[in-house]
């Protein structure tokens, strides 16, 4: 297969060179009306190709896309995205039609004269005001949603979790009974205290260090992000959530999980996508894939950036309470 | 400047030339060579993305100790991605595009003997050449070239412990960029001064071709924003070499706590994107200017809405300096800032839409001469629209959260600034090749070049939007560790095949370009029957551009197909032909357009 590929490339290059020298001997440089006719038709053909590809992707790539938002806050993201996507989709189809159809329609011909048409304030006003009006809607909805998502001030009973990044792994720290994280800084990193928690801070004693996230369904989660070395980005695509982890500062993000992992696995879009993935995995002889929420690193952070992930499991509140109770506190681990 | 009897040696004519036409060719050829490197790198990393475990002898041959049995190593993958971005954005689309066409066209289109300072112009080129050489040398450093992404965010770019490329490779990157910025600034100042002061008699600002407006505004943005990148780079050098803490704080790496206290990487992001976003327009505006000129000439019609075009260039330029934060919605900066930047960012859609509609209206009822330059210009409008529209997703902070740094972004900016700008550059080369070399490029090869390029451009970047929407982060060496992304593998193979064909198709252009220099058809003085001043100069270059007096300008640049009776499309052309040189005086009773 590979050898064939190389042979193909060599042949292609050889043929190209032969053709190029042949064509270079045709000393023609300026488009004639015959060229205009050919190129005009090619513009139409290209438009057909472009439309075909755009429609094909829109229909058949639907299955690979992320399923509906798994967080309550993300619902409006999906909404806004749908509105925006329909809008730009329609404009895209119209504009590409105009571009390539005009190229065909007005291709240079014998005896054809161009119209002298330099200006029209009316037209220009139309295409200044129309985008502006549309933008008012997009900006308005977008900003409302942005403030919704980013405003974490009134979530008194949110669960506080620290997500901690380093080359090339994720850790997490639950705030424990008091729901307040103990102070952390790289200067406290020592031995098994890998997240640099200040153990003299009494808020830290009941904190719990884990390597996988468990979240209760329906409770707001308030994430605090830290990084100990370079920039990382905590990307949780299913929840429409992302925030950079910046050394030297604490960043934050919050959302409310809407479906448990189990519920998500039963969701039709997820079933379809998983089936597609498993078909491919079966052909390659790999183990079947089961859907899980993930946290990925999405800011270039070094050689193994491509393999920095943490599993997220969303469960019902009782199960979460049970799980969190089983996790040891820092005070019991770090002596 | 008017007497030119001094003897030219080989060195003063071809190497240390102060003639803008020669300098423009030097920029173009250097840009093309850097472009070959940049495109070749993209082909290498696309092969890695499509066939992550496959062994390729080409990778074995080129990557030396950075590969194992024909498979590239993860850190060199990041290095190649980084250098691809750096070279394409700065060396090809900034210096290669602006350097070539600003130098060639500014004196010719405004009616000047040369740039305001020929000497500084020469310095600008040689600084660019030097920075190119240093960037190329950095590829051969033992630990590999800079690998922190073309945005070189610290701390990754500051700490060799974090990635091997942040050692000597990164130092050379910074030195190269500092020299590059100096080159760019000197060039830009020269362009501004020249356009302000050396216009010929009658060439009012409102009679300038849109190319001139675009180059002028581009130079202004460059002067405003490049110094900020220079300071960002200098502070990064301080952090790296002299132990300061502008960008670094609280770092624990390789088992020890570093001494840095109180800095913030977010500061670097602000400084970087204060250039980085205007940079998009530094790359794009010249291409749009070139396109305006070529579409008008080849449609045999005035550009529609000349004043609106100038207005939108200015609006884009102004807005471009106050939107940088949209690259940082999830950087941890105050969400309120995110709101402001969302607002300013989405406003850019308005002047951009005006430009796109004006291009389309220029095509409407034209008599389109579909030369290769024209096709590339039309292709630019197409990719500019496609890429621009997805900007409405990315510019909206709420939506950006989930597509930030995914392949959706890669698809967006490659279409809107990468492909568009490179199409503008190709259009310019095909159109002004006769002005540069006195010969024509072959149109048949031009057609092949265009159609293969645009099909591959869409074949690469349209499907890429969807793998981005599937949540695939960019800059991943391989996706095989995520079963979640297994169903994207086939699409990545298709994208890579399009990329390889598209990359190889550029050989057609290279062959056409270099063979035409020597064997192309001899050009006539005004092959495209254009209105602008550069076509009044002799085919053989003379120092000082016009052998006698510089011609006087009497009208704007777009009197194509002007009629005896402006309201009657069937009436005869006012000047007998469908074009009127800017130097033609107004007839008795002729209304200036």
From the structure above, extract its key features.
heterodimer; A: 335 residues; alpha+beta; Immunoglobulin-like; 2 domains; five-stranded mixed sheet; 8 helices; 44% helix; elongated; B: 593 residues; two-stranded antiparallel ribbon; 4 strands; 1% strand; respiratory chain (chain A); transport (chain A); copper (chain A)
Question: Summary?
Answer:
The complex is a heterodimer of chains A (335) and B (593). Chain A has helices at residues 2-25, 33-60, 74-105, 121-150, 261-265, 268-283, 317-326, 330-333; strands at 159-166, 169-174, 208-210, 213-216, 221-227, 232-236, 241-245, 251-255, 293-297, 309-315. With 335 residues, chain A is of the alpha+beta class.
Major beta sheet summary of chain B? 2 strands, antiparallel
How many structural domains does the protein architecture of chain A include? 2
Instruction: Report the order of strands and helices of chain B.
Output: HHHEEHHHHEEHHHHHHHHH
Low-confidence stretches of chain B: none
Please indicate the percent range of residues of chain B in DSSP E strands (runs of 2 or more).
under 5%
Shape descriptor of chain B = globular
Radius of gyration of chain A: 29 Å
**Could you name the CATH homologous superfamily of the largest domain in chain A?**
Cupredoxins -  blue copper proteins
Q: Estimate percent helicity of chain A.
A: 40-55%
In total, the number of strands of chain A is 10
Q: In which order are the strands of the major sheet of chain A placed?
A: 3-2-1-5-8
How many strands, what sense, and barrel or not for the largest sheet of chain A? 5 strands, mixed
Distance from first to last alpha carbon of chain B? 34 Å
Strand content of chain A: 15-25%
What does this structure look like?
The complex is a heterodimer of chains A (335) and B (593). Chain A is of the alpha+beta class. Chain A folds into two domains: 36-108 and 120-151, no CATH class; 159-333, Immunoglobulin-like. Chain A is 44% helix and 16% strand. A five-stranded mixed sheet of chain A has the order 3-2-1-5-8, with no helix packed on it. In chain A, a hairpin with a 2-residue loop joins strand 1 and strand 2. In chain A, helix 3 (74-105) runs antiparallel to helix 4. The longest helix of chain A is centred in the N-terminal third of the chain and has 32 residues, at 74-105. Chain A is elongated, with a radius of gyration of 29 Å. Chain B is mainly alpha-helical and 593 residues long. Among the domains of chain B are: 293-523, Cytochrome C Oxidase, Chain A (Up-down Bundle), CATH 1.20.210; 529-593, no CATH class. In chain B, 61% of the residues lie in helices and 1% in strands. Chain B is built from 16 helices and four strands. In chain B, strand 1 (67-68) and strand 2 (71-72) form a beta hairpin. Chain B is globular. The model of chain B has no long low-confidence stretch (mean pLDDT 94). Chains A and B meet through helix 1, helix 2, helix 3, helix 4 and strand 7 of A and helix 4, strand 3, helix 8, helix 9 and helix 10 of B.
């Amino acid at each position: 297969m590979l050898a064939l590929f190389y042979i193909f490339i060599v042949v292609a290059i050889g043929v190209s060179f032969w053709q190029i020298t042949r064509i270079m001997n045709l000393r023609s440089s300026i488009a004639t009306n015959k060229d205009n006719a050919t190129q005009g038709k090619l513009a139409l053909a290209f438009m057909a190709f472009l439309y075909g590809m755009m429609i094909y992707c829109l229909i058949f790539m639907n299955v690979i896309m992320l399923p509906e938002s798994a967080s309550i806050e993300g619902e409006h993201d999906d909404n806004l995205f749908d509105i925006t996507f329909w809008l730009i989709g329609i404009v895209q189809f119209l504009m590409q039609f105009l571009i390539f159809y005009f190229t065909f329609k007005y291709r240079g011909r014998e005896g054809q004269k161009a119209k002298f048409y330099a200006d029209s304030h009316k037209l220009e006003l139309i295409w200044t005001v129309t985008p502006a009006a549309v933008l008012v809607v997009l900006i308005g909805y977008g900003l409302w949603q942005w403030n919704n998502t980013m405003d974490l001030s009134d979530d008194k009973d949110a669960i506080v979790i620290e997500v901690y990044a380093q080359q090339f792994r994720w850790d997490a720290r639950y705030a424990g009974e008091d729901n307040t994280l103990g102070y952390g800084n790289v200067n406290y990193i020592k031995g098994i205290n890998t997240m640099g928690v200040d153990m003299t801070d009494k808020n830290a004693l009941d904190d719990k260090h884990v390597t996988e996230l468990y979240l209760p369904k329906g409770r707001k989660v308030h994430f605090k992000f830290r990084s100990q070395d370079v920039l990382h980005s905590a990307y949780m695509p299913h929840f429409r959530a992302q925030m950079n982890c910046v050394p030297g500062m604490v960043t934050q993000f919050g959302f409310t999980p809407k479906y448990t992992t189990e519920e998500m696995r039963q969701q039709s879009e997820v079933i379809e996508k998983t089936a597609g993935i498993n078909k491919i995995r079966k052909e390659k002889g790999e183990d079947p894939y089961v859907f899980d929420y993930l946290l990925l690193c999405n800011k270039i952070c070094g050689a193994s950036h491509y393999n920095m992930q943490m599993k997220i499991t969303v469960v019902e509140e009782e199960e979460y309470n049970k799980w969190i109770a089983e996790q040891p506190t820092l005070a019991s681990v770090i002596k | 400047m008017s007497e030119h009897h001094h003897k030219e040696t080989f060195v003063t004519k071809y190497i240390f030339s102060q003639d803008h036409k020669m300098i423009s060719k030097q920029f173009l050829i250097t840009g093309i060579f850097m472009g070959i490197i940049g495109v070749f790198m993209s082909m290498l990393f696309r092969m890695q993305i499509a066939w992550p475990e496959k062994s390729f002898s080409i990778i074995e041959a080129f990557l030396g100790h950075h590969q194992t049995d024909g498979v590239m190593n993860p850190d060199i993958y990041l290095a190649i991605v980084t250098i691809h971005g750096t070279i394409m954005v700065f060396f090809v689309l900034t210096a290669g595009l602006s350097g070539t066409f600003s130098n060639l066209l500014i004196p010719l289109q405004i009616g000047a003997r040369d740039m305001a300072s020929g000497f500084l112009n020469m310095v600008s080129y040689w600084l660019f050449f030097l920075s190119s050489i240093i960037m190329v040398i950095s590829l051969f450093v033992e630990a590999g070239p800079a690998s922190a992404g073309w945005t070189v965010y610290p701390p990754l770019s500051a700490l060799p412990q974090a990635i091997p490329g942040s050692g000597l490779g990164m130092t050379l990157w910074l030195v190269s960029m500092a020299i590059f910025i100096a080159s760019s600034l000197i060039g830009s100042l020269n362009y501004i001064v020249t356009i302000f002061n050396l216009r010929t008699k009658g060439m009012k600002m409102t009679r300038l071709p849109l190319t001139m407006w675009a180059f002028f505004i581009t130079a202004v943005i460059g002067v405003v924003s490049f110094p900020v990148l220079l300071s960002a780079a200098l502070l990064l050098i301080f952090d790296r070499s002299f132990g300061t803490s502008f960008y670094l704080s609280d770092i624990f790496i390789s088992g020890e706590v570093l001494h840095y206290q109180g800095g913030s990487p977010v500061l670097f992001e602000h400084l970087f994107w204060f250039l980085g976003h205007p940079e998009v327009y530094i790359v794009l505006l010249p291409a749009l200017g070139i396109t305006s000129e070529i579409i008008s000439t080849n449609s045999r019609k005035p550009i529609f809405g000349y004043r609106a075009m100038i207005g939108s260039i200015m609006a884009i330029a102004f807005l471009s300096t106050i939107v940088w934060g949209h690259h940082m919605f999830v950087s941890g900066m105050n969400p309120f800032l995110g709101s402001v930047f969302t607002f300013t960012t989405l406003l850019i859609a308005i002047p951009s839409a005006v430009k796109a509609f004006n291009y389309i209206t220029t095509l409407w009822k034209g008599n389109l001469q579909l030369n290769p330059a024209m096709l590339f210009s039309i292709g630019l409008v197409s990719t500019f629209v496609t890429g621009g529209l997805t900007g409405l997703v990315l510019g909206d902070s709420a939506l950006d959260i989930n597509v930030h740094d995914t392949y959706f972004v890669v698809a967006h900016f490659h279409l809107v600034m990468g492909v568009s700008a490179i199409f503008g550059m190709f259009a310019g080369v095909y159109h002004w090749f006769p002005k540069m070399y006195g010969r024509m490029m072959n149109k048949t090869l031009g057609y092949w070049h265009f159609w293969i390029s645009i099909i591959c451009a869409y074949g690469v970047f349209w499907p890429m939007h969807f793998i981005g929407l599937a949540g695939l982060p960019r800059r991943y060496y391989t996706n095989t560790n995520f079963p979640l992304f297994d169903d994207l593998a086939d699409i990545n193979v298709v994208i890579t095949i399009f990329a390889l064909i598209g990359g190889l198709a550029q050989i057609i252009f290279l062959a056409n370009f270099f063979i035409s220099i020597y064997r192309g058809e001899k050009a006539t003085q005004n092959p495209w029957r254009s209105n602008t001043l550069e076509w009044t100069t002799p085919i053989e270059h003379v120092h000082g551009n016009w052998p006698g007096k510089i011609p006087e300008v009497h009208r704007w640049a777009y009197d194509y197909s002007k009629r005896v009776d402006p309201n009657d499309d069937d009436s005869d052309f006012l000047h007998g032909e469908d074009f009127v040189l800017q130097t033609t005086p107004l007839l008795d009773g002729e209304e200036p357009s």
